[in-house]
Each structure stands twice: as C-alpha cells, then as structure tokens.
From TrEMBL:
Keyword Nucleotide-binding among record annotations: yes
Name used for this protein in its record: ABC transporter ATP-binding protein YhaQ
Family statement: Belongs to the ABC transporter superfamily.
Taxonomic source organism: Virgibacillus kapii
Annotated ranges, domain ABC transporter: 2-229
Source organism superkingdom: Bacteria
GO molecular function, one term: ATP binding
Keyword terms: ATP-binding, Nucleotide-binding, Transport
Amino acid sequence: MLKLTNVTKQFGNHTAVDHLSLEIPEKEMYGFLGGNGAGKTTTFRMILGLLDSTTGDISWNGQSIHYDKSHLIGYLPEERGLYPKLTVKEQIVYLGKLRGMKKAEIIKELNSWLDRFKVPEYLNKKVEELSKGNQQKIQFISAVIHQPKLLILDEPFSGLDPVNVEMLKEAVVDLKEYGTSIVFSSHRMEHVEELCEHLCILQKGKQVVQGSLQDIKRSYGKKNLIVHAAFPLEFLERLPGVVGFRKTTEGCRLEIENEDVSQLVFQELQNKGFIRKFELEEPSLNDIFIAKVGASYE
Ligand SMILES: Nc1ncnc2c1ncn2[C@@H]1O[C@H](COP(=O)(O)OP(=O)(O)OP(=O)(O)O)[C@@H](O)[C@H]1O
C-alpha cells in the first residue's frame, strides 16, 4: 500500500503541495486530479524519490520510499522521453536492465506487450520512425516492463486514438486486477470516472475533494435533469431549486439543487405538450470538478 501522510512541498515561499494525505491499496486505481499547476507532478516526483518533501511522510507497505526502491515503481511521465535513435528493443532492454532484469526476461516480456498492442513488427524499429501514438505505447511498455507494484500514470491516454485508448485502458485494468497499485492523473474526467473507485481533486496543492467516486457524487447533492420536449423549455430556468440551465439540441439540461426539485419540474411540464425524455442523472465528475476548481482552472 502507498501511503502519503501530511505531505507538503515548498519551493521557496510557494507551497506546491499542501498537507496531502492519501492511501492506495493493492488492486486499486486512484484518480489524481487537478488543474494546471495544482501539484500533481510535484507529488509524483516526491513518490518517486526525485524530490524530497518539505514535511510529511511517504511510505510503501510501511517503509519509507527511497530512490533505490525504483524497481518497485513504474512511471509514465507526462512529458515523454524515449531515445529517438534507439530501436524499441535496444531502448526497452536498456531500461529493463536499469531495473535489474535479465536480457532474455526483458525480451520475452517486451514481445508479449508488443503482441498485445498489435505491433510486433516494431521490435527492431527506431523510436523516431514510429507515430506519436505508437511511441506512447512503447513508453507505456517501458513503465511496466519490470512488473512494478506501484504504477504512476500521468495523462496516459493523451495523443492516442480511440482504439488505442481502449487497448491501453484494458491493459491498465488487467495490471490493476493483477495486484498493481495505480495512481492515475488525467484531465479527461470520463476516463477517471470509468477507471477509478477513489480519487482526489487538488487545487493549489490542497485536496478540495477526496473519497470514493460514489460518495463524492452523493455528497455533492446536486443532480442533472435531462428534458427533451417539443415546446420551449426556457421557463424552467426560473423555477426554485433550478440552479443551472443549458439548452441542448433536443431540449435542455438542468442542474437542480436536489432530486426533490425534479417533482416540481415534472408538474410544471405537464399539459404543456409532448415530452420525449425526462431523466434524472447523477452529476458527472466533470460537473463536480468545474464546481470545485473551475473558477481557477488555469
Ligand atoms: N522545481 C520547481 N521550482 C519552483 N516551482 C515549481 C517547481 N516545480 C513545480 N513548481 C510549481 O509548483 C506548482 C505545482 O506544479 P506541478 O507541476 O506539480 O503541477 P501539475 O498539477 O502537475 O500541473 P499540470 O497539470 O500543468 O502538469 C506550480 O505552481 C509550479 O509552478
């Protein structure tokens, strides 16, 4: 289990990470969210031992994490860094050996990943000859080749087409099922919503939301109401309890204070004309993210 207790990182007077505490057990994918500059990469660097925390403690199964534990950890950084002139094989063999693996073992593992990603022909290609998306697959392989117990993925799906996103998602879910603890950062809320049971949202280094996805949604309270109708719906905006209104091609999407407000909306719609859809929805993670940090996303 990865445990961060009251971790703070200061750069001069600037507090990049402010009393961060979290726990990530085995077989768990933890969503780590925040706008630009929120402190995600700084946290990852502290977990990796590349930066020392100013105060607080980071431990893996009860022991402090040091840089010499790097074989335990796999890291896919946001800024990709492969050697363009090396072939895929040379590259991964080099990185695997740094993590204490034997050449034969590395090649076996690499071939199985290349097969899985449907690119076995890339084994002897230079990295610079591959498309950006395929380089991304190789970078992913370089992060998992040594079967790390803890995997840190910073924006793993950026730059990938939808087919490859699905392929990588399946790989990540399998690693989780296999027992890996995964920390996953993304600006794409729907990916986090799909993959993570627990998450936190950072703003200016502080956790403004944390817990299970289900509890976070429940405690947010507000719900969305989708209405499709054959008559104008603007009047709904003025009803008490309706806190947001967005016109859509087929009707509108309301944000309501709580689910009881849907009764009132339903009554107001009756006898006004044909209603094709009336549906109460949980708030999306995107709604919650925008409500909590939207004003200062940049
Ligand atoms: N080495 C450093 N020296 C000084 N300030 C730093 C350093 N590294 C990060 N910061 C500052 O710490 C804050 C957090 O940065 P960090 O890179 O961790 O954010 P992030 O959440 O990863 O953002 P993004 O989503 O844009 O990658 C920012 O205000 C940044 O300017």
